[in-house]
Design a protein that fits this description.
single chain, 195 residues, mainly alpha, Arc Repressor Mutant, subunit A, Tetracycline Repressor, domain 2, 2 domains
Length: 195
């Protein structure tokens, strides 16, 4: 197996161990066993467990941020806020469904989650909150949302609803679908804007 492909296989194995056994179950031995290789193969690619976990966190963060780029526009445009927010929630939930293991370690943190992982999650949640605030602020400026709307609380409500929806999609995808949440967000926003 080419080295880069092997590295990805080992990172996938580590992610699988974390999702199934939690961080306390992660070891070079468990990763090797899950990947179907020997410990020396793991050490050929990662000098220690810490380096392997750091690489895993960076990879999963990259994947999640690439997916989030399509959820909330980085540059507020002339788009209808109802469509952007309802569609954004749906796109986020579809992203959760596409990479459930990635989003499990973000939205359903396990006991013993290392500080490195918690810090990456915290920083990215704040970044997304800032993007949502920017969108809400711009929508108020354009008169598309009520002027008295509290920007920070509105943005937090959208982010927190989305995160809870993501948890529900991970734990009960049949009952809580992206389409169901999209319809709910659309209904709530139309009620808000009907004033």
């Amino acid at each position: 197996m080419p080295p880069e492909q092997r590295r990805e296989q080992l990172l996938d194995a580590a992610l699988s161990v974390i999702v199934e056994q939690g961080y306390s179950g992660v070891s070079i031995e468990a990763i090797a066993r899950t990947a179907g290789v020997t410990r020396p193969v793991v050490y050929d690619h990662f000098p220690d467990l810490g380096r392997l976990l750091r690489s895993l966190v960076q990879r999963e963060e990259r994947y999640s941020l690439e997916q989030l780029e399509h959820v909330v526009p980085g540059d507020p445009s002339e788009d209808d806020p109802v469509e952007v927010l309802a569609g954004g929630v749906k796109r986020f939930l579809e992203a959760v469904g596409e990479r459930p293991a990635t989003w499990r370690i973000i939205l359903l943190p396990l006991d013993g989650t290392p500080p490195l992982v918690r810090e990456h999650v915290r920083r990215n949640r704040e970044m997304m909150l800032g993007r949502i605030e920017q969108f809400v602020r711009e929508s108020i400026r354009r008169g598309e949302l009520p002027g008295e709307l509290d920007v920070e609380l509105a943005a937090r409500a959208v982010r927190d609803l989305s995160e809870e929806a993501g948890r529900m999609v991970l734990t009960d995808p049949t009952r809580y679908s992206p389409e169901r949440y999209e319809g709910f967000v659309r209904s709530v926003l139309k009620l808000l804007l009907a004033r």
